[in-house]
Amino acid sequence: MDAYKQVQKGPLKLKGVTELGVTKRKKKKDKDKAKLLETMGKIQKNQEEELRRHLDKRTPAQVAFEKVQEKRQMERILKKASKTHKQRVEDFNRHLDMLTEHYDIPKVSWTK
């Protein structure tokens, strides 16, 4: 036990630093918080755009093809939405009236 009497029991002391000279630093107030937030927003938007570019592995031709497909699909939807159900049924009945008898279902009977 006598060998451990020389052990220091308090916090470590650094050379050249006096106990009175150690003070906490004051935090600097940011005068341009709005500017800082704006730059952070721009950085995040740029990062999101870069992620989209990296995730999108399509060629320009594929992108153009998909745009044309979407445009055609919208045209089809508008064309179908332009007629009411009643108008579609009338058109279908007119079409059936124009067909020849070849398309009629033949009678099947055993007795003739």
Automatic annotation (TrEMBL):
Q: Which Pfam families match?
A: FAM32A
Q: Which domain of life is it from?
A: Eukaryota
Which PANTHER family does the record associate with it?
A: PROTEIN FAM32A
**Member of which family?**
Belongs to the FAM32 family.
What's the name of the protein? Protein FAM32A
Q: Which organism is it from?
A: Odocoileus virginianus
